[in-house]
Specification:
This protein is mainly beta. Helices cover about 5% and strands about 40% of the residues. The protein contains one helix and 13 strands; from the N terminus they run ββαβββββββββββ. The strands form two sheets. Strands 3, 4, 5, 6, 7, 8, 9, 10, 11, 12 and 13 form an eleven-stranded mixed sheet that branches. Strand 3 and strand 4 form a beta hairpin.
């Protein structure tokens, strides 16, 4: 309804002073108008929309923590590279390779064992009375910290005595080395033909005492 004297879009409210009066309205009852601007309408709409959009949001659940990687096993104290066994029909043979110490302390190998022989010893080759002979290596074989020690014909080696089964090329022979601290190393050596320095590994005058085990006229 349009009130005479008032403009469309005006809000009507009671005031003490007369501003707009309806026909037949008694004096003392006055009405005043307040213009609602388009800007006011816009603000009200924005507030209403803000109220509708103010819903609380739920933070996404945190991803489960990735478990820390488990520590890998430490490297073996001692390993051997290129292990091999000299082929033989029976009697005596020997095993060779390069011992590798992976620790910061020296490792001492004090004994060896193999299913191929009932008697396995750590030997060295030394000069005695003008010829090269084999004998047990006193104190075992010591590998320095982070170092290597080569087992080779004509030098330190693993001696097999009383071999009754032929060692053929490509044969896989198991060995176990025991360290001074009680640790062990198991490995497999491969049968290999080797003429080298013509080592015959035949016992000399005292095979039980090992002193004087002749290496032949020459050695590797």
């Amino acid at each position: 309804m349009t009130v005479p004297g008032c403009l469309p879009g005006m809000a009507i409210e009671r005031r003490p002073a007369a501003a707009c009066r309806l026909p037949g309205q008694k004096r003392g009852i006055t009405m005043s108008v307040r213009r609602i601007t388009p800007a006011g309408i816009l603000v009200a709409a924005v507030v209403a929309l803000a109220g509708c959009g103010s819903q609380s949001t739920v933070a996404p659940a945190a991803a489960p923590a990735t478990p820390a990687p488990t520590a890998t096993s430490a490297a073996p104290a001692l390993t051997i590279t290129d292990p091999w066994v000299k082929t033989a029909k029976k009697g005596m043979s020997a095993a060779f390779g390069t011992l590798v110490n992976n620790t910061d302390a020296e490792v001492t190998v004090v004994s060896a064992a193999s299913s191929l022989s009932p008697k396995v010893e750590l030997h060295e080759v030394v000069e005695s009375a003008g010829k090269m002979v084999m004998r047990p290596k006193e104190g075992g074989i010591v590998i320095p910290p982070k170092g290597t020690h080569r087992l080779q014909p004509g030098g330190d080696h693993i001696m097999l005595m009383g071999v009754t089964e032929a060692v053929r090329p490509g044969a896989e022979i198991p060995f176990t080395l025991t360290f001074k601290d009680g640790g062990t190393l198991e490995f497999t050596a491969v049968g290999k033909d080797f003429a080298g320095g013509q080592e015959n590994y035949q016992p000399g005058t005292d095979p039980e005492g090992h002193e004087g085990m002749d290496m032949g006229e020459s050695h590797g």
